[in-house]
Amino acid sequence: MATAYLEEVNPWEAQVARSDLAAKKLKLDEGLWKILRNPSREVIVHVPVQMDDGTLETFTGFRVQHSIDRGPAKGGIRYSPNLTLDEARALASWMTWKCALVNIPFGGAAGGVICDPDKMSKRELERLTRRYTAELIEVLGPEKDVPGPDINTDEQIMAWIMDTYSMHVRHTVTAVVTGKPLELGGSHGRTEATGRGLMIVCDEALKRLSMNRDQTRVVIQGFGNVGSNAARLMHRRGYKVVGVSTSTGGLYNKNGIDIDALWMYHKRKNTLNRFSRHSRNRLCRVIGRGLRHSHSSRRRESDHQPQCRPAEGPDPL
Hints:
- Strands 1-2-4-3-5 form a 5-stranded mixed sheet. A 5-stranded mixed sheet has the order 9-8-7-6-10, with helices on one face.
- The protein is built from 8 helices and 10 strands.
- Helices cover 35% and strands 19% of the residues.
- It is α/β, with parallel strands linked by helices.
């Protein structure tokens, strides 16, 4: 059914429904579409990790390579308690389409581990990352599959992956990941890249809608790497960011939020809670908790208020 994706219940089924519709419109060869419709490879690993208290826990991880026809696969690794194989499949396929669209010689991949990083220490995350990498050592590499950061993963996670992979192959391989620290060969501007892309999309939308930035109010759902950088860049470009939320709560100020102050506060505290008490934004008010899947966080005061919902991914090209 062509409109099945409107439900947005399962990311993989939504992706397949969209792609089926696109393939019909493009009159794509049926045999070729059968190849592209499903991932080329799916790897499931069960990763044992010794926790700081001495107990042993097992975490389930995935790596999906949707296509390697145009070159090595690439795509993000996310750590989330809600990660599913279908989500990884969808993310991998979307990366295939993105790379092909801009004619970059890569295929799509995605993966991650089912875990809650907020409840794990840095040492536990390092042990998890290194063991997860070791379990996937045969399918990773600059000519095979290049991971990058995604939800709850950052340049430190990428550095651990690079180091673990390099130890196994007995020489330094910086090209095995993207999003690594600058000291290890990372790229300038990479941290802000996805948020900047979101801002550029909004800029182009305003041109088409004949709207002005200073009259456009913005609500951003998510304040991780993507959301926070999108908020900072759009604020500096002249947008009025009136609302920001995370999975645990949010802030709203009809006059606009001091995004630079909020960014510094969130960097120190890793939360938006009590921000108004520690800043000049006394008019900020909490708009609820657990907003990631809540439609009540969407303001209805103006038609000139785009909803920006970064998911801290997928991984930028």
